[in-house]
Specification:
The protein is an all-alpha fold and about 50 residues long. The protein contains one helix and no strands. It has a domain of about 35 residues. About 0% of the residues are buried.
């Protein structure tokens, strides 16, 4: 079996340990939670006339 394009990461790929990947996912989840919180806060300040 020969290597196919896409079998190996490109030169700009970042290789993460499992712990680094988990930490990155937690940061992304925290950012999403904060954005959603801000959206809901903004919605609560909007008045409908």
């Amino acid at each position: 079996m020969h290597a196919q394009p896409g079998d190996f990461p490109g030169p700009d790929a970042e290789v993460l340990t499992a712990a680094e990947e988990q930490a990155a996912e937690e940061r992304a989840r925290a950012r999403l939670d904060r954005v959603q919180q801000l959206i809901h806060e903004e919605d609560s300040h909007v008045r409908v006339h």
